[in-house]
Amino acid sequence: MKNAVIRASDKKCVRPTVLVVDDDPTLRLIIARSAAQCGFEVSAVSNVEDALAIARKTTFDLLTLDIMLGKQHGIDLLGRLQEAGFAVRPSSLQVPRPPSATHAGLR
């Protein structure tokens, strides 16, 4: 068997993809930049409708999703993605404590 020479141009390097959905522009930028620095191809949007539009055109390896998106809810997006046939399996859910719990913890 001959030795094979593989040039970088012979193979495409496929980067993992992430869809970042957050209505807070600062958090969206922080998450998107962090993901890009870790090697992800990033798409970032601020609302459910834009996320659905992108998801219909592109497949994603990872979804980061804000639960409260202004008047919309991230959980609604998960349901709509599942209804559209996407394999969505949440692996982590982080919910901030309500202000009353935070204040009670300080007492």
Word description of this protein:
By secondary structure, the chain is an alpha/beta fold. 38% of the residues lie in helices and 17% in strands. The chain has helices at residues 25-37, 48-57, 74-83, 99-106, and strands spanning 17-21, 41-45, 62-65, 68-69, 72-73. The strands form two sheets. It has a three-stranded parallel beta sheet, sandwiched between helices. Helix 1 (25-37) links the parallel strand 1 (17-21) and strand 2 (41-45). The longest helix has 13 residues, at 25-37.
Helix content: 25-40%
- The H/E string reads EHEHEEEHH
Rg calculated over all Cα atoms? 19 Å
Terminal Cα separation, in Å? Answer: 74 Å
Keywords for this structure?
Rossmann fold, single chain, disordered C terminus, alpha/beta, three-stranded parallel sheet, 4 helices, two-stranded antiparallel ribbon
Helix and strand arrangement:
Blueprint (H helix, E strand, L loop, with lengths): L16 E5 L3 H13 L3 E5 L2 H10 L4 E4 L2 E2 L2 E2 H10 L15 H8 L1
Parallel strand pairs: 1-2, 1-3
Antiparallel strand pairs: 4-5
Helix pairs in contact: 2-3
